[in-house]
Fold this sequence. Notes:
The chain has 676 residues and is of the alpha+beta class. The protein contains 20 helices and 24 strands. The protein is elongated.
Amino acid sequence: MTGIQxxxxxxxxxxxxxxxxxxxxxxYKLLYESNLMPIAVFESETLKFLSVNKxxxxxxxxxxxxxxxxxxxxxxxxxxxxxxxxxxxxxxxDQGVVNVGIYTHKxxxxxxxxxxxxxxxxxFEGKNAKMVVVNDVTERNIIQKELDLQNLKLKExxxxxxxxxxxxxxxxxxxxMATDEAEWSEEMYNIYGVTKENxxxxxxxxxxxxxxxxxxxxxxxxxxxxxGKLFSPFEFRIRRPSGEIRHVYIVALEKKSENMxxxxxxxxxxxxxxxxxxxxxxxxxxxxxxxxSDFLANMSHEIRTPLNSVIGFTDLLLKTKLDxxxxxxxxxxxxxxxxLLTIVNDILDLSKIEAGKLNLKMDKVxxxxxxxxxxxxxxxKAQEKGVAIRINVDKNIPIIWADPIRLRQIMLxxxxxxxxxxxxxxxxxxxxxxxxxxxxxxxxxxxxxxFSVRDTGIGISKEHIDYIFESFAQVDTSTSRxxxxxxxxxxxxxxxxxxxxxxxxxxTELGKGSNFFFLLKAKIESQQSxxxxxxxxxxxxxxxxxxxxxxxxCILIVDDDIVNRFLAKTLVKSILSEADxxxxxxxxxxxxxxxxxxxxLILMDIQMPEMNGYEATKEIRKIEPDTKVPIIAITAGTxxxxxxxxxxxxxxxxxxxxxxxxxxxxxxxxxxxEIG
Length: 676
């Protein structure tokens, strides 16, 4: 008999687990598919994609179905060198979730992206697989690279800034006035000779480094800041821990906030040393220059003293009856003495110009008179050589303001130079009006005038043109031997013109002559017609002087040189034969003679032993009655300011030796004569 056996099993729990498993699997798939992060699963051995979520598909531009026929190598650039690294990495067992780094991927459209890979080992559909989560870091990396670049640039800039501060010895600082907290640049510590480790830059600590005598400057600056004002830059000194003193210069640049101040400090020690050295060098140069000026002034005095006698007595002798030979000999002596005097004057003029002590004295000038007076000086020499002199002056040139003495000196130097080197032909003075400058009211204010001296002399070669304007320069030594001279004339003329805002220029050809010229810009005298009338009137009506009849004058001659006293006495006697002459050899002697004699006029030397002319004049002015006796300075001194000092001490006039009879006659007529 066949039977049926029925077995009954309770599978309720199993079904329950299956339902739960399905529910878990559905939940997992939902999380996987809906996750916003790109997620993919690929087989470890074949590298084929087993699954990708929607975000992964959208990220790379392929459909989920297309990915199932692709490997992970298909989303990498062909030229990348990452593939061996990827394959080696996949062979490793991932212990949990692993960040395997950043890789380069390629999207369907060819765009290259950088991704961060998070990976873990999984079993998928019974296969060994790896699940990857992809984080696109392309933009982040671009920003990071830019940030790194900026940080590098900032670092380089900071390094360059510190280097620049170090090279320029300038440190920067910030100071919180409320909390007394400060930040210093690296160079600030270098300036103060300290380090960050051993010095905190509080106000109190900084004040300790400042020299006590400079502290008030710091306190004043802080007071200004507390009152809401930025202090003016100032200098002060600090003492480093080593004891070395440094000079610093501080500038507050700006307030960053109510209490925060920003500024810089510069170490100026080396500049201060240089300034001190320059001051010392300047003082030494000025002292040397002063010593040279004093030496030249003293030498001038010593040379002029005997020259005064030589020229004075020779001049007197030439006015006496002489035979032709005697007259020739004396004339030669007279010319030689005057030539020596010219040399002395030239050297003194150059010294004054170099020392910056020669000042122009402006006056009204008629340029035709300047040309005529200058030509008169060389006309006798020109006649001897048979050289013609021609003067061409533009009649439209107005009366100008200039230094007549120095302008005449320039013209005379040029003419003397021309006559020296010209044996045949002509010397021509040309003065031409080039331009008139008027003001807004069309009133003439300035004139531009061209002065030139042209000759038919020996000329100058081109290579020597610049050389001739140098001090003591001659074209060559043979020229100096043949023609003489110091070579200072052109130099002095050029220096004088420089003071006038002009310069000497030259056109020349060897063997054919030279043309020296300069362009002078000068102010125009506003009262032209009146000035011309005055000049004409002065030429037509000259007041005549004569001595009062039966008046016997007493004249005091004060000079430490016996020969000069004898010359002055002789010159006075040649004009006033009846005059009483009293002689004094110094200021003390003069004072005693003045007290015991009724004196009408004093001829006073300046440089004398025991008591000089200045002191003697001052004492005489103290003791004399209301009537002031004329005191005339006659001195061999030629220092700048001598004339002004003489007049300030109470003297009436000032003359430089040598003096001739004509000068003494002018003095006597002016101060002892009467207008007739």
